[in-house]
């Protein structure tokens, strides 16, 4: 068989290159949604995760891990991932069991929920829960659970590879963090709660040197609501969404950081099985909630959005019910590329899952509920 003329081959190559140039942008673009699992110990519980985008664009995820929640074996692990979440490092121990914060009277009994905050200088602050160890002669440790909680904080200057010693940040009985800190004038808003009092509080924290300082705090009095999650509003206030221990539904209130004032909480039209929620602004003036769409079950994490923070339209599932139940404790951030990145506990606190999604997937989520 004779070879085709050189001109014909050249023309075919030119046509192929032209087609490739048309297809390449969509073919090479990051997927609208991407899922991954963060490497973690195969046995025991992995829970209470937080995610941060580092100055380099890489991701850092940290969580507590141990034989079971509140156990003396619990440590805080961290893993680094690429910006798209496609690969993750083997986790390392950031805070070991038995850690003792500066000024604490004894080593911790256990560790809990993690939050991560990247400050403008590129350092990463970790605020995390602690179960204190209060020893009495003969009796021994009288602290067994989160009622003896406290919040410690520490800082890393090398992208989370090493951390400073912990400092006591909030010493209120049963105090624990949950959701992302938000920058405001003079510092950061720290949403936390008191397990024993079942009370939500917003604190203002300054990160100075290696020692965090709790400058002020504003409790939400008269309401048994916990684990506040904040979304900044256009008027400078924050819409705050709560876990409801009574399982009536997700509650919402407005908090003014300038005046330190709360509005009275309102019950939204979303259920809540006494599980944490997280929320974000979709860039179009609407609040999007990641929540468990049930008053009794944590089997699924789903999305809902609202223009007024009270009346929500429901969207699709964020977790995969067939393979990830139960799923809970979401933490979400928006990256510099405009896409959102979330982590959550799946398989009944056994695994830490990662998901990255963009605005087009979010619109599809609400347009077609899937």
Please outline what is shown here.
This protein has 370 residues and is mainly beta. It has three helices and 28 strands.
Question: Which tags fit this structure?
Answer:
globular, mainly beta, Neuraminidase, 5-stranded antiparallel beta sheet
What does this structure look like?
The chain has 370 residues and is mainly beta. The chain has a single domain (31-368), classed as Neuraminidase (6 Propeller), CATH 2.120.10. It has helices spanning 6-28, 321-324, 359-368, and strands spanning 33-38, 45-53, 59-66, 75-81, 92-95, 110-118, 124-131, 135-136, 140-141, 149-156, 167-170, 175-177, 182-184, 187-194, 199-208, 211-219, 226-232, 238-243, 251-256, 261-262, 266-267, 278-281, 287-291, 302-306, 313-317, 328-334, 340-346, 351-357. The strands form seven sheets. Strands 12, 13, 14, 15 and 16 form a five-stranded antiparallel β-sheet that branches. The protein is globular. The model is unreliable at 8-28 (pLDDT under 50).
Kindly report the oligomeric state of this protein.
Answer: single chain
Instruction: From the alpha carbons, calculate the radius of gyration and give it in angstroms.
Output: 23 Å
Question: What about the largest sheet?
Answer: 5 strands, antiparallel
What is the residue-averaged pLDDT?
A: 92
Number of helices: 3
Total domain units: 1
Number of strands: 28
The CATH architecture name reads 6 Propeller
Percent of residues in beta strands? 35-45%
Shape: globular
Low-confidence stretches: 8-28
CATH top level class name? Mainly Beta
Which bin fits the share of residues in helices? 10-25%
What distance separates the N and C termini?
A: 53 Å
> Which structural class do the helices and strands define?
mainly beta
CATH topology: Neuraminidase
